[in-house]
Amino acid sequence: MAADTTSITASALPDPAQEAGGAWGFTRAQLGALGVLIVFLAVAPFMLYPVFLMKLLCFALFACAFNLLIGYVGLLSFGHAAYFGMGGYLAGHAAKVWGLTPELAIIVGAVTAGLLGTIAGWIAIRRQGIYFAMITLALAQMVYFFCVQAPFTGGEDGIQAIPRGSLFGVIPLDQDMTMYWLVAGIFLGAFLLIHRIIHSPYGQVLKSIRENEPRATSLGYRTDDYKLLAFILSATIAGTAGATKSIVFGIATLTDVHWSMSGEVVLMTLVGGLGTVFGPVIGAAVIVTMQNYLAEMGAWVTVIQGVIFVTCVLAFRRGLVGEIAAMLKVKL
Amino acid sequence: MDEIFGIPAPLLFGQLLLGLINGAFYAMLSLGLAVIFGLLNIVNMAHGAQFMMGAFAAWMLLAWGGIGYWWALLLSPLIVGTIGVILEKLFISKLYKLDHLYGLLLTFGLALIIEGVFRNEFGSSGLPYRIPAELSGAWDFGFMFMPVYRGWVVVAALVLCLTTWLLIEKTRLGAYLRAATENAALVQAFGVNVPRMVTLTYGAGVALAAIGGVLAAPIYSVNPQMGSNLIIVVFAVVVIGGMGSILGSILTGFTLGIVEGLTKVFWPEASATVIFVIMAIVLLARPAGLFGRK
Amino acid sequence: MSIQRRDLLAAGAVTALGGLPRARAQGTQTIRIGVITDMSGPYRDTTGPGSVVLTQQAVQDFLGGGRGFQVEVLQADHQNKPDVGANIARQWFDQGVDAVVDLPTSSVALAVNQIAREKNKVHLNSGAATSDLTGAQCSPNTVHWTYDTYMLAKSTGAAIVKTGGDSWFFITADYAFGHALERDTGNFVRAQGGRVLGNARYPFPATTDFSAFLLQAQASRAKVLGLANASTDTVNCIKGAREFGLHRSMKLAALLMGVVDVKSLGLESGQGLLLTESFYWDLNDRTRALTQRVRPKNQDRPPAMVPAGCYGATLHYLKSVADMGVAAAKASGVEAVNRMKAMPCDDDAFGQGTIRADGRKIHPGYLFEVKTPGESRNPWDLYKVVATTPGEEAFRPLAEGGCPLVRS
C-alpha cells in the first residue's frame, strides 16, 4: 500500500525556480502576497483591535514554525505545544523573576525551546511518519507533566502579571500600539528567516529528503543531521512565538503546553495549506478569529474544529491558500 | 522476607496486582490500535473517544433501556463497532491512497467531534455506573483486599487479547488478514473482498476499544474526557511494543502496567512519566520497538 | 435578552473592524454584566450554564421592583484558557461591559483580575478556588464571593477533628492547588490536636487509577482519608475507596466537591462522605424558595454552589449600583466595589453577610455528610449538615492574607 501513496505536501504546482520574475527566492505571486501582508501589518492596528492582532500574529508565527517541519521536511510533529509553551514560561519567568528586558526574555524563551527541541528531535527523528507524530506527542506530554509539577510555572495558576517592561530598557511597551509594532517586527523577521532557510541550499536538501529520503542518503547527505537541525529551528521559532505571546498578555499557563494546543497548530496549518508560505498565516487568522467570535458557542467550538479538520482532510487538502494558488496557477 | 527494598511485601504484591489491572486496559487499547494499524496503516486517534463511547453506550443501555452490564458487554461493542464501520465507509476509506498522516488528522478531527458532542449532551462531571451485583464484593487475600470486579477485568482482558491473537494467527480469516497486510492487491486478485475486510477490521478494532470502555465504566467515572488522557499513554505503549505485532502489543501493555504500578510504590511522582521515559530509551536502543520488524 | 446580546455581539464585530461604539456608550442607563465561565470543559456542570441562569435570576429578582435602569447579561466560554478569558474580558470592558461574573479556574480568574483592575471595572468572582484573589493578588476591583481553598480546608479539617476524626491520611494531586489544600487542612487538623499520618501525591492529571494510593492509605490505619483534589479525580478516588473497602475503617473527606459531583458519583458510592460547601439548596426556607424560582430554567436541577454565588454577587452589585447611581457605578469599578463593601449583604442564597476590605465575602461554611440511599427522599436530597463554621472563623483572617489593600 505504501507504493501508491502521495506525500502529504507534494503539490502539482510549478517549481519556483522555474518561474521567472521573482526575487530573493520569492516568486512574483509571492512577492505580491508579501506586499499585501506588509501593508496589512502596517494598516491593521488602526482598523482592528491591536491585542487581538498580536494574538493572531503570535499564532501565525507558531504555525509558520510548525509548517517548516511538515511542509518542507514532511515531518508531522504532534507535540509542538511543548516548545511554544516552554518558550512562554521561560520568557515569563525571565521577565518577572529575573527582571530581564522583554527582548532578552524572548531570547531566553526561544533558546530554551531550541534546547528542548534538540533533545526531543534527537529522539524523535529515529522514526518517520505516524511514529514520529506519536513520539513527539508522547514527549510533549512529558513536558506538560513537568510544567504541572515544576514550582516555577505556578502549576494551574500559571505565571501571572508578567511585566511588558521596556524594549532595550528604554522604550516602554505598556501601550498596545508600541507593543504591536514590536510583535509585528518579530513576526515579519521570523517569517522572512523561515523563507530564507527554505530557499538556502540547506532548504533544498530538506525538500529532497521530503521527496525521497533514501535517494538523498545515497547522494551522501547525512539526512538525520538535516532533519534534526530543521527540528531545532522549528522548535526555536515556536518558542519565540510562545515567548512573545506571554510578554504581550502577561500570562504563561498550562494551556499553551497542553496537547490540544498541538492539535490547534496542526489545524491552523492544515486550514491555511500545508507547505505553502502564506498558508499558516491565513490558517492562524481563520482559527483565532473563529475562537474569538464563537466563544459564546461553548462546547460547540471543539465540535466545529473537528468538523473543519474532517472537511479539510477530505475535501480541501491543499488548504485555503493552496486552493487559491492552484486556481491562479501560482505558488503562494 | 517481610520487606523488599524497604516496602512491606504484602503492599508490593498488592501493587503488582493493581499494575496488572491497568496493564489490562493498556493491552486492550493497544491491541485495537495494532489491529487497525496492521491492516489500514492508520493511527486511530479516535480510539480514546471510541473507548469513551463504549462506556457511555453501557450507561445509556442501563439508564434508558434498563439493559444490564452483561448484555451491555455484548451490545455496546456491537453498537460502537457499527458506528466505526460507518465512519470507515464514509470517511476513512477515502484516504487509503494518501499519506498515512491524513488518516491521523482525520481521526483526530473525529475524536474532537465525538468528545464535543458528548460534552454538550452529558456535561463533563461524569455519570455513575454500578458494579454488577455478581461481581461486587471483594476477596480478602490476607495481604490485601482484592475487589472481585478488578479480578474480572484482568481475566476478561486476558481472554479477549488471547482470542484476538488466536483469531489472527491461527485461523483462515486471520491468514487472509495477514496476507492483505502484506499485499492487498494480490489477496484481492485471489477473490477476497479486501475493502470489506478492511472495513470490518476497523469495526473490530473499534469494538475492542468499546469493550474496554464497558469494562472501565464501573471503576472509573463515565465522562467525555475519560479516553483522551489514557490514549496518549497507549500511544507510547504502542511505540514501545512496535506496532506491527499483535502479541507484542499485548505483552507490552501488561508489562508496562506492572512497571507503572511499581513506580507508584517506589517513586509516585514519576509514575506519570515512567512510560514515556521507557519509550525514549527503547527508541534510542531499538528504534523499531521491542517487537517491531524493520 | 437574547436580542440584546446579539446586538452587543454585532457591536463587538464593529469594534474589531473600526472604532468603539460610542453611540451605544451614551445610553448610560444600562448596566452590562458578562458571565465568563466554563461552558465546555471539566467545570461545565458545576459552573457554566447554571451560572448564567442564576445571574439572570438575580437580575430578574432585582428588577422586579422597577429600578429605572436596564440590565443586560452576556455570556462567554473561556474554555479554561487564561488568554481566551483575558481576551473576552478585555474586549467586553472596552465595549462597555461594567462587570464580569463567575470566572472559574484560578488561572483565568487571576488573569482577568489584572485586566479588571487595569480598566477599572468590576470582577465578581464565584468559581475560582485560589485564596490569592484576596491575598497577595487582591485588587480593589474584585469581590471573591463563594469559597476559597482556605475556607474549605478550615471547615473540613477543623470540624472533622472536633467530631473525633483525629488521624488523617491525604491523597493529593501533585500540583499547587492540591498542595495548598493538603497543607492548609493538615495545619487545621494539627491545630485541633489531630495528627497527619502520611500522604500520597499522585501525578496530575495523568492518573486515572487510584487504587495504589488507596492501598497505602488503608495501610496507614488513619481514621480520615482527605482527598486533596477535584472533580473526576475525587469521584474516581471515592469509587475506588468503596471497592477496596476503605469505608469500613475510614471516613472519607473530599476537600473540594459539590452536589453535582455527588450526584454523578451516586449515593451508593458516596454515602458517608464529608465535604464543605457554602451553599446547599435545601439549607433553609430562603434557599428552597430560590430553588423553586430557578429550577424550571436550570434543566430542572437545583442550583449548585458556584452559580448560587453568581446570584448573590450579582444581586448585591446591582443593589450597590442602584444606591450610588448608574452613572457613578459605570464610571469607576473601584467605587462600585467600595459601595458593595460598605453595604451589608442579604440574599436568598447566602443570607446576611459582609464584604471585607480585601474583597472577601464573609458567610458561614457548612460541613455536610452525604446521605445514605435510605435517607434520601428525592433525587437531589443528598446532604445533611454536620457542622457550621461561622463566617468570622471560616475565612482567612484579614491580617494573614498579605493583601496590599489592607496594609494601606
From TrEMBL, chain A:
Subcellular localization(s) per the UniProt record: Cell membrane
Membrane topology value: Multi-pass membrane protein
Keywords for this protein: Cell membrane, Membrane, Transmembrane, Transmembrane helix
Entries under Pfam families matching the protein: BPD_transp_2
GO molecular function: branched-chain amino acid transmembrane transporter activity
Keyword Transport included in the entry's annotation: no
InterPro entries xrefs: ABC_transp_permease (IPR001851), LivM-like (IPR043428)
Origin: domain of life: Bacteria
Name the UniProt record assigns to this protein: Branched-chain amino acid ABC transporter permease
From TrEMBL, chain B:
Lineage: Bacteria, Pseudomonadati, Pseudomonadota, Alphaproteobacteria, Acetobacterales
Pfam families with a match to the protein in the record: BPD_transp_2
Gene Ontology biological-process entries: amino acid transport
Keyword tags: Amino-acid transport, Cell membrane, Membrane, Transmembrane, Transmembrane helix, Transport
Organism: Roseicella aerolata
InterPro entries in alphabetical order: ABC_transp_permease, BCAA_transport_permease
TM helices/strands, residue ranges: 12-35, 42-62, 68-87, 99-118, 149-168, 200-220, 232-259, 265-285
Membrane topology: Multi-pass membrane protein
Entry protein name: Branched-chain amino acid ABC transporter permease
Family: Belongs to the binding-protein-dependent transport system permease family. LivHM subfamily.
Record's subcellular location: Cell membrane
Top-rank lineage group of the source organism: Bacteria
GO function terms (MF aspect): transmembrane transporter activity
GO-annotated cellular components: plasma membrane
Main localization (coarse): membrane
From TrEMBL, chain C:
Pfam families tied to this protein: Peripla_BP_6
Alphabetical UniProt keywords: Amino-acid transport, Signal, Transport
GO BP field: amino acid transport
Residue ranges of every copy of the Leucine-binding protein domain listed in the record: 30-372
Keyword Transport: yes
Record bears the keyword Signal: yes
Source superkingdom: Bacteria
CDD domains assigned to the protein according to its UniProt record, in alphabetical order: PBP1_SBP-like
Membrane-spanning ranges: none
InterPro entries per UniProt: BCAA_transport (IPR051010), Leu-bd (IPR028081), Peripla_BP_I (IPR028082), TAT_signal (IPR006311)
SUPFAM superfamilies on file: Periplasmic binding protein-like I
Family: Belongs to the leucine-binding protein family.
The protein, known as: ABC transporter substrate-binding protein
Organism encoding this protein: Roseicella aerolata
Organism classification: Bacteria, Pseudomonadati, Pseudomonadota, Alphaproteobacteria, Acetobacterales
